[in-house]
Specification:
The chain is built from twelve helices and twelve strands. With 476 residues, the protein is of the alpha+beta class.
């Protein structure tokens, strides 16, 4: 099994790291966003309060200006004193402007007597409310209309710095940041401890796996902790059982290979020793012994050929030529070749085709599949029995079903019927011939066609083999 290369560093794939990362992303990112929103709202509330306060100041100043008729009489004593007091108290700049946009008073003394062409002032004199806050210039401007009965209106323009507001917000931001950092450290510590605790079951599970890696399959898996580990335990136990079966099958396979290869050689040696030890052997006996030796050599060759074919298919080095093939014709050719064998036991060989089927297959390999299945159905059948082969298809697959009236297969042997050299009845199998590899080769060929083979049997009633293969071959 190939191991996929993971380009992500190992520590980034750590369950503990993921937990901490989730705490940061799901916890602190929203907190930081919320903090900025709240600080901005807090700042704007301070600005609005400041604007309201300035409006109140300008209203009081407007009343005083109208009371002394400042715009007409130019009486400045009381107003100058009041404006100076407001300026000193709020550190602001106040401009008093008449209806001709002339600046009558400037607390900075810089623009007194000049004409004010500021858009906000003209809008205010026309009767529109005007105020402005600039975060860039860090100031607030409020313009209040001075109403007169003769319609010679003026305006009061008050500008005040917001540095104190920015300072308040900055201090609040720093304190909130300190609180967030403290909470962040505490939460990270808690998250890390939680991550350590939450990964303990995985560590125990890993320890169990490491113990099993030594080959001790009897060690119980420790999956206490999470329900998800129960599913993993079931999957791994199934895998271990499969490994044990495969390990047992491998040992049995090696033993069977040794036995199957040694049996013909032993027979040849016995026959040859008999000829050597005998004197004046009749020609008929000599010919019989030599015929038996050739038969055993052919049997040995068949076993080796089938073994090599299986090895090539296992390593996927066996060449398959997929081409559009008439499956009906392939089956008919195979059945025609097998009819003489069936006739010896008076077995009726039936072919039922529901429709013409054209599929992309390796014709030679598919012939081997059909031949092996049908030949087994004939060999392990009863006298005067039947073998029925049917062919059908849908839009994606074609289906071959082989039914027989034979002796059947015991239920305990059906799971291993496709194993190499596995024989249900070894004595009877040797009488019928074969290498014991036919069904193993059949299953390998079907799988290499991306197909599936299933067997259903009942002892004493017969066997049914179903093969499903795609109509169009898809390469990996």
């Amino acid at each position: 099994m190939k191991k996929r290369k993971n380009k992500i560093p190992k520590f980034l794939r750590s369950f503990r790291f993921i937990i901490v990362l989730c705490v940061i992303l799901l916890g602190f990112v929203p907190v930081l966003i919320l903090k900025n929103i709240m600080l901005n709202e807090y700042k704007m509330s301070l600005v609005n309060d400041r604007i309201s306060k300035i409006k109140n100041i300008t209203l009081v100043l407007e009343n005083d200006i109208n009371r002394v008729d400042y715009l007409s009489s130019k009486e400045t004593k009381d107003i100058d004193s009041q404006v100076s007091q407001i300026t000193g108290l709020y550190n602001c700049r106040i401009l008093i402007i008449d209806s001709n946009l002339k600046i009558l008073y400037d607390t900075y003394r810089a623009d007194t007597g000049k004409v004010c062409i500021y858009t906000g002032v003209t809008e205010c004199i026309r009767g529109e409310d005007y105020y402005r806050y600039s975060s860039k210039d860090k100031d607030i401007e409020v313009c209040e209309k001075v109403k007169k009965s003769d319609n010679s209106n003026g305006a009061i323009l008050m500008s005040i710095s917001t540095n104190d507001i920015d300072t308040i917000v900055t201090v609040a931001n720093e304190r909130i940041n300190i609180i967030i950092i403290i909470v962040f450290v505490i939460v990270l510590l808690v998250a890390f401890l939680f991550a350590l605790y939450s990964t303990k079951p995985f560590k125990k599970f890993e320890k169990s796996i490491n113990n099993i890696k030594t080959g001790n399959f009897d060690v119980a898996l420790d999956t206490r902790g999470y329900s998800e580990l129960d599913s993993i335990e079931e999957a791994i136990e199934h895998l271990f059982q499969r490994m044990q079966v495969l390990d047992q099958s491998r040992d049995e396979f090696v033993s069977n290979v040794s036995h199957e290869l040694k049996t013909p050689i032993t027979s040849i040696k016995i026959l040859a020793d008999s000829l050597v030890a005998s004197e004046n052997v009749p020609e008929e006996m000599y010919r019989e012994f030599m015929t038996d030796i050739v038969s055993e050599i052919d049997r040995e060759n068949d076993i080796i050929t089938d073994l090599l074919a299986l090895v090539r298919m296992d390593k996927k080095t066996e060449k398959f030529v997929f081409e559009s093939t008439n499956i009906n014709d392939v089956i008919e050719v195979v059945l025609k070749r097998l009819r003489p064998i069936a006739a010896k036991k008076n077995i009726e060989l039936i072919f039922e085709s529901f429709r013409p089927v054209i599929a992309e297959v390796d014709q030679v390999k598919l012939s081997i599949v059909i031949s092996n299945i049908v030949e087994n159905a004939i060999k392990y059948n009863v006298m005067d029995g039947f073998v029925r082969v049917s062919l059908n298809a849908d839009i994606k697959y074609f289906y071959i079903k082989v039914e027989d009236s034979g002796i059947g297969i015991p239920s305990e042997a059906q799971d291993r019927i496709f194993d190499r050299f596995y024989r249900v009845d070894k004595a009877r199998s040797r009488e019928t011939g074969g290498t014991g590899l036919g069904l193993a080769i059949t299953e390998s060929v079907v799988k290499l066609h991306k197909g599936e083979i299933k067997l259903h049997s009942k002892e004493g009633e017969g066997t049914t083999v179903n093969v499903r293969i795609p109509l169009n071959h898809v390469t990996d």
